[in-house]
Amino acid sequence: MQLFEILHGISPWWWVAFGVGLGALEMATMSFFLIWPAIAAVLIGVLLWAAPAMSGEAQIAIFAGVSVILTFAGRSVLLRYGDGGAENPALNARGNLMVGRHAQVVAFSGPEGNVTIDGVRWRAIWPEDGGAEPGATVKVTRAEGMTLFVETTD
User: Fold this and answer.
1) Full-prediction pTM beyond 0.70?
2) Domain ranges of the chain
3) What value does the mean pLDDT take over residues 96-125?
4) Domain 94-152 class?
5) Is the pLDDT of residue 91 over 70?
6) SS in 3 state form for the chain?
């Protein structure tokens, strides 16, 4: 096939350039997938430098195999030793940032009402049909979405 014939006499620098190109594409997309074929391409460049008579078929086969192996090995290492997608309970959940903070009561009608924290008004729920007078200070115990659960401060 024509592609394999072209690869037969190719310089190892083409594989290195291909790896650098894939690495640059990885940096642009931040998918953390293209890094493994990029490393495999650089390794093929090194291997081709050591064995310049390698056929085009062997180059492609080794590149494909090393890419697959590096992808699975890299993913497993990242899952084991990386942050593992560490959850940040406050990420994209602004209400969770308010837990433990003190709020000023604006108004309560039965178990529901409004409080302010740093000038921002929040919907609040008082436990067990309680309530508080406007101006009182309460503590946020938990949050569900944009609703805060509050109790009196001691």
Assistant:
1) no
2) 2-81, 94-152
3) 88
4) mainly beta
5) no
6) CHHHHHHHCCCHHHHHHHHHHHHHHHHHHCCCCCHHHHHHHHHHHHHHHHCCCCCHHHHHHHHHHHHHHHHHHHHHHHHHHCCCCCCCCCCCCHHHHHCCCEEEEEEEECCEEEEEECCEEEEEECHHHCCCCCCCEEEEEEEECCEEEEEECC
